[in-house]
Amino acid sequence: MAVITGAARGIGAATAIRLADDGHRVAVVDLDARDCAGTVDAIAARGGKALAVGADVSDEDSVAAAFEAVVTGLGEPTILVNNAGIIRDNLLFKLSTPDWDAVLGVHLRGSFLMSRAAQGYMTRNGFGRIVNLSSTSALGNRGQANYSAAKAGLQGFTKTLAIELGRFGVTVNAVAPGFIQTDMTAATAQRVGLSFEDFIASAAAQIPVARVGRPQDVAHAVSFLVSEGAGFVSGQILYLAGGPAG
Ligand code: NAI
Description:
Blueprint: E1 2-5, H1 10-21, E2 26-30, H2 37-45, E3 50-54, H3 60-74, E4 79-82, H4 97-125, E5 128-133, H5 145-165, E6 170-177, H6 183-192, H7 196-204, H8 215-225, E7 237-240
Helix pairs in contact: 1-2, 1-8, 3-4, 4-5
1,4-dihydronicotinamide adenine dinucleotide binds next to helix 1, helix 4 and helix 6.
């Protein structure tokens, strides 16, 4: 069964639905279990099985409770997608310490806590797939010192877990999307004072395939990386940017 964090909306929701279509039972994890209903209902309507789990991935006790609920409700996890994320963008001289800590906390600490909890089941069963959400921002992005550091940090985290867990049948990879059309990029449009439509059009003009990404584009790549057949792919960072970024 698959655990997807931040799966109430956006990339996480699309990934949860895709992995359910692939035949996995799915734990839909997000801050508030009630927000997960849309994803859970979409999976049920397609004949899949999903469970809503409320958890803050940056909180150790909350992560422990989430795994208890997941294992009781759906069984032991074989797949973990560390997708939960937030942005708190600002130029360095205006970037507050709480905004630094919050972003590092959700992306890095959250992926660490979730992966550490999941690996116990995976290594014991001799099979596991972990996918972390990095970003093209890992290469540097104005106004995102905190987010860029977290997304670059996740790449080192991914490679190290791949080295440590490989002998137990567990692969660990990252996807690094460019512009994907979600609430997160809608919030960025608002911050820079553009309508979402204009923001999308200007982003698409810079992308070789001449469009922005959809959550399903990321879900498709995750579906491959967590498949049984991808067992010789580990420690990789797959850029999903409609071109050679990264
Ligand atoms: P989104 O903002 O639409 O969804 C993120 C979800 O994570 C929300 O449902 C939110 O409630 C949840 N979340 C936030 N903090 C949490 C916490 N502490 N515990 C549990 N859940 C939490 O974002 P989107 O766009 O779907 O992004 C998903 C992931 O993909 C993020 O890690 C993001 O950084 C990454 N990404 C997104 C890109 C984009 O262009 N949208 C590009 C590259 C990476």
